[in-house]
Write a structure and sequence with these properties.
- By secondary structure, the chain is mostly helical.
- It has one domain.
- Helices cover 81% and strands 0% of the residues.
- The chain is built from 4 helices and no strands.
- Helix 3 crosses helix 4.
- The longest helix has 44 residues.
- It is rod-shaped.
Length: 97
Amino acid sequence: MNEHSLMELILDASPVVQGVMLILLLMSIMAWAITFAKSYQIRKAAAEAKAFDDVFWQTTELTQLYNQVANDEDKRGSARFSKPVLKNSSILRNKVF
């Protein structure tokens, strides 16, 4: 079996094979870029959820938590979804049945 370097194999390949290899290389780079970007997003979301969870369990009254969430302009994750729930719970608490 002949020993060929990787570069020789690529350069001696037909244009179609070279094109396919180039496409595969570009798609591999894109896949890794997406993987790293999503990993960063997941870590950031987990940190935001933990921060909200800490605030949630340290707050003694839901009205304090609602006011804090309502005043936060840049709501993400758990805080964004909890605002309507907290608002409805305060409305229901004030109703007389």
